[in-house]
Write a structure and sequence with these properties.
3 domains, A middle domain of Talin 1, globular, two-stranded antiparallel ribbon
Amino acid sequence: MLEYNSSILKKAHAFTMCLFLLFASSCKEEEKYINNPISNLEVNYKHQLQLCIAYLDSLSNTNNSEKKVEFYVLARNKFKAIEPILSFVDKNNYKSLNQPNILKVEEEDATDIKKNKPFGFQVIEEQLFEGDLSEEELNQNITKTESRLRLIENNIQLQLKDYHILWLIRDEIIRVALTGITGFDSPVFERSLDEAKINYEAIQAILEVYKINFSDKELFKSWEAEITKTIEALNTDFNSLDRYSFIKNHTHKQLKLILETKADWKTNFPFELAFKNDVTSLFSNETFNIDFFSDYKAENSGNSDIVKLGNQLFNDKRLSINNDMSCATCHHSDKAFADGLKTFPKQIRNTPTLNYSALQQSYFYDGRAGSLEGQVAAVVKNKNEFHSDLETMKKAVESDSSYVNAFRTYYKGKVNYNSIRNAIATYIRSLSPFNSKFDNNINDLEQTLTDNEKNGFNLFMGKAKCATCHFAPLFNGTVPPNYNESEFELLGVPKDTLNPTEVDTDLGRYDLFKTEERKHFFKTPTVRNVAKTAPYMHNGVYMTLEQVIEFYNNGGGSGLGIVLEFQTLPSDSLNLTENEIKDIISFMNGLTDNNP
């Protein structure tokens, strides 16, 4: 059993004395405390935070390598215990403390580029595992992590309403399902399932604090029973967890319990975040609040008349300078709005699918547009695409009386640049049906998923590490559960299959701001409808999914002998068998939408 050092014992003793004084002061004060859940929550939160700091302190003060790992695990466990609250009330500090050991580059514009060396728990974990860093480097990271936690401790003042509590519980349930059980933030020790159990224990502790809110005591018991079953389901090894059943039978059930609790507590969600307020499934066209992903006003989303108008504009070649190209020229509906080409003539990059493109935070492979409307404008101006301008496009629309009447009706005014772009974007936002074979099965609409397809999903979400970049349910790089950021990765994609040891010459994100550390970085696209969107990668280098998975299985560019300092894809082999690769492909083929 792990021995506590004197610092931990002193902190634990001090905390115990505080609780004794608090509860023993008077019956009146005790009643006030018990009936004030937020105060109780804050005391518990602070206690876990203090123990986390104490374990980190112990980690930095021992020279025994085994003890270092033990103290790290204890500190990490306490961090996971405070995760539901910390990640909700202080998102930026949470991200900093839980970021991967990859240089963080923030590019607001060419005059505001920040390069931040990572620190926090994942960095410590990797440093402990590698064991080749100096004691000084390790302790510097521990000290910085500890200092950030102390800053948080010194500024604790929880001001949470009842709906905030339900939101943060919902966030944690979704975080566990979409990143926790994938190994996303425990890439070395692979303690993801143990940490997920701690997350659920933390949720149970929060619900216990708010037990007084439940008028339906059976509902509270349902929560207790469900969390107990969930923790039991997590009592397995990383590669054996049935993630499909976990999400279908536990995550979705808990989302329904959230809504039942909301009704029982007689509270309301005042607005919607990334998820719709009545979400009960992660794999539905009723899962996401699509307006969260848009800078434009919400009233147009879902307007079927504007979707039809946008569809007409999408297919209208008159919007290009020579009347020879429309959006549909490159984005074919029968190919999931890709084009089946390695690269379209005069383009250097493969044409991506438009399905689910609305559910991300940046556009184009290099992320140069911040909205679908911005993407439309860029296509209009591109000399190798529409080769036009917004004024010419506006005149083309104004020349058609049916368009003019439609814009007057739906946009309450004349045709303008913004309304045209918004109409096209509104159509694109309608292309997220979530009606694939996989979606229908995990939502119990049909029972047709094969064992191979289910195993493929479990591999995708587990051993194969696919879901640590292609996050379910969108299977793109927009990070759940907050969906504020779309990730960019450096994979080391080769120039072509004839020169597999030579990296592709396209510098990707680098071309925007000339940040050296962003060379060859590209946005992570969705793998939904991937069966229809060959060839693959930003340059269309691979014709088959087998080639793509082989590339990942061998460690990306590093496995081909391409040496890139900032490659984000782990260089270790995934050790996937031939049958496992077939199962993963079977699963991905099951992500093909049943479009009308």
